[in-house]
Design a protein that fits this description.
The protein is α+β, with helices and mostly antiparallel strands. It is built from 3 helices and 8 strands; from the N terminus they run E-H-E-E-E-H-E-H-E-E-E. It binds ligand V0V and cobalt (II) ion. Residues 7, 9, 59, 83, 85, 133 line the site of cobalt (II) ion.
């Protein structure tokens, strides 16, 4: 079902500060920066390695508002790992397959994700407490 871990999402109060921390500690390079209004985040992707069907990344997330998913998470739990994202060949197919097992889908249909990807989230309470994202990487002509 999964090709690789696409990214680990980290909730941050200050994006620039955490970019400096992660790139300094681990020699990672920022390959994309984006504001995603629908998800309520300002984010940066730091490339870790290449895997099957695409890269793997650390995704640093700063909330656009206190009542966004990442804003609420920061207030409740503080900075740290927010979600794990798996690369899939077909996000709609994976949603259907996993939804059929009784896992609550947080999205009715795929949404726009970073670097032109299509994404969908699974409820953390149905995945052992781990907020889980499915990612279908953009084809080059869609980026
Ligand atoms: C909340 N909970 C979590 C969690 N967030 N558990 C693990 N990891 C997280 N990140 C727990 C929370 O402690 C509660 O448990 C329970 O789930 C319900 O949480 P809540 O605070 O009552 O509810 P909300 O309103 O904060 O909603 C939580 C969910 C929401 C997960 C439903 O954050 C959501 O829809 N997330 C999906 C979208 C998202 O996260 N977007 C930002 C990343 P207790 O306390 O009742 O036991 S955007 C992104 O990754 C992009 C763009 C990309 O990759 O391209
Ligand atoms: Co993500």
């Amino acid at each position: 079902m999964f090709l690789r871990i696409d990214h680990i999402g980290i909730a941050c109060n200050d994006l620039e500060e955490k970019i400096a921390l992660f790139s300094g500690l681990f020699d990672l390079t920022v390959v994309a920066r984006e504001v995603n209004e629908e998800q309520g985040v300002k984010e940066a992707m730091l490339h870790v390695a290449d895997g099957e069907g695409g890269g793997s990344y650390i995704q640093l997330l700063e909330p656009l508002s206190a009542d966004s998913p990442v804003g609420k998470f920061l207030a409740k739990r503080g900075e740290g790992v927010h979600h794990v994202a798996f690369g899939v060949p077909d996000v709609a197919g994976a949603m259907e397959q996993i939804g059929a097992k009784g896992v609550r889908l947080l999205d009715e249909r795929p949404r726009h994700g970073s670097m032109g990807s299509s994404i969908a989230f699974l409820h953390p309470k149905d995945v052992g407490g781990m907020l889980t994202e499915l990612v279908q990487t953009a084809r080059p002509e869609e980026m």
